[in-house]
Structure formats: C-alpha cells, structure tokens
Amino acid sequence: MRTPWFRSLAFAAVLAAAGTTGLHAETLVVYGDDNYLPVIHHDAAGKPAGVLVDILRKVSARSGDTYEIQLFPWKRAYELARRGGGAVVGVSLTAERSEIFDFSDPMYNDDIQIVVRRGHAFNFAQLGDLRGKTLGGVIGASYGDLVDNAIQDGLFKVDRDIGQAGRLRKLLAGRIDGAIIGNGLAGYEAILRSEPDLWTQRSQLVTLKTPLARDPLYLAVAKSMGQKDVIERFNKALRELHKSGRIPRLTQGAAAKK
C-alpha cells in the first residue's frame, strides 16, 4: 500500500521531471522580420517560416510557453516590441538596446555579407576600408556596436531601405557601392532564387570575401513587460535543445540551403 509520504514524493518527482513546462506557461506575441530569407520570412502561403521560427517552435514544445509569431517589415516589428506589445526575434544585441530589452541567449549567428558589382570590388579587411563608401542596408537594423559606431561617426554611409531584393537592384543600377546582405551566402542565394530578374543577373554580382560582421541574433522582451521569467524558460529550453543536438542541426541546415 502506498503511503501519503510516498505519494508526495512521487508527485514531487513528477514536478521535477516536468521542469518549467506547463507550470507557468504563457502566451507571448513574438514579432519578427517578414522578409529576411532564409532566417525568418513569410512562406508562399503567408505563414511564418525560417530557421528562427523553427527554433521558436521547438523551444515552445519544451518550455510550455506559446509563441504567437507575427511578421512585419523590420522597423515596424522592432517598434512594436520596443513599445511592449510583445517580444521580438532576430534582434541584434547593442548597448543601447540592452537598456530597453531583456535578451535571451544567442539563437543564431548571422554572417553579414557585402555584395558588390562585378568589376567594382574593393579590398575589405577592416572597417577603415569602407571609408567614403555608400552601402545599402535595412531601416532600423543594427550590425553590432562596432559597425553601428562607424556608421554614426560618418566613416561610411548607409542608404536605408525595407528589403534586400530592392537593395540588390539598387546596386545593379550603380546607386550604391555595396549591398549589406544578411545570413551569409545562404541568405544571398535565397534572395537571388526568389527574384527571377536578380537570378538572371547574378553573374554581375560578387560577395566580398570578408563579412562585414558576425551578428548573433536573439529573442528580446522589453523590460517594461516584466517577462524575465519567460526569457529564463526560453534559455533553459534552448540550452537543452543545444545539448540534444537539435539546434545545431537546424542552424547547419539553414546555412546549407541553396
């Protein structure tokens, strides 16, 4: 016959095994970029897709929290999160942002490439090599403190826009010296394949050998929302998924997509 102390012990064991899952589960709106292939974007059916979305779903299954993913142009997604309307995924960590948001552990390393017109390449090994150049970049994006500070100091200019495909067209027209393209060669290839006119002109474009930056991407929640516990559960689940090998498989798969 099971005694009361045995039942209590068994119940405690169940709770321990459950971890955080379901004990304090919440639904959290998560905003993100709607067109950052293949990291995060709308698929052909208009649904959220990409490696960050896959990671969120796997973390949700383990943490017990539900992430309601809503994708918009980056500037709007970031502003909605900054105002406390929800979390934001795919965001870079900067000193300024760390005063506004609570950040998760890094989710994904994003190699930021510079694409130029064939025949107009230039040596790039350090930020000083960009002096006087004009590069195309997305409105509201950060490329890490080092690059952001160089832009702010006027070392080079960034012509801001809302999409990477349009940026490459601007480059082909000779209106900028280079286009800042995220997610390394995989991201660049995905953009070319998604736009027939760019695909036919791909031989006119080349990527510089040295990336502009390696930019870890995070989940972040405005401090005003008081959701540190959600971040803690997210981090716990993310670390467990890393240990199991599931996250490395996802990120390697994204980098290999052509």
From TrEMBL:
Key word Signal present: yes
Signal peptide: 1-25
Domain (Solute-binding protein family 3/N-terminal): residue spans on this chain: 27-258
Top-level taxon of origin: Bacteria
Gene3D superfamilies associated with the record: Periplasmic binding protein-like II (3.40.190.10)
Statement: the UniProt record of this protein carries the keyword Signal: yes
This protein's UniProt keywords: Signal
InterPro entries referenced in this protein's UniProt entry, alphabetically: Solute-binding_3/MltF_N
Name of the molecule in the record: Solute-binding protein family 3/N-terminal domain-containing protein
